[in-house]
Specification:
It contains five helices and no strands. By secondary structure, it is mainly alpha-helical. It starts with a helix and ends with a helix.
């Protein structure tokens, strides 16, 4: 979580997000908010996958923000995950 909170290296962030996937989340995903501003398509798609595992209302808010991405793959994936929530 420290990497997610402090790193600006997209590769490090991508690895940290990937390590968190597959673990059911009950808490707040607030620490992930700073990643929303990155422009790396792969990082954002993995972030969407991770956010879709959270049951916190903030995760839905972040997914809604990601539907507005300029990258079609990111916005479409976020929209798909929102339909399943």
């Amino acid at each position: 979580m420290e990497i997610i909170a402090t790193s600006n290296d997209e590769d490090e962030l991508w690895e940290a997000v990937r390590r968190l996937q597959g673990k059911w989340k009950k808490g707040s995903p607030q620490i992930l908010e700073r990643i929303l501003s990155f422009n790396d398509e792969y990082l954002l798609c993995d972030l969407i996958e991770l956010l879709s595992e959270y049951r916190h209302p903030l995760a839905k808010e972040y997914l809604i923000r990601l539907t507005e991405s300029t990258c079609d793959d990111v916005s479409e994936l976020a929209y798909e995950k929102l339909k399943k929530k």
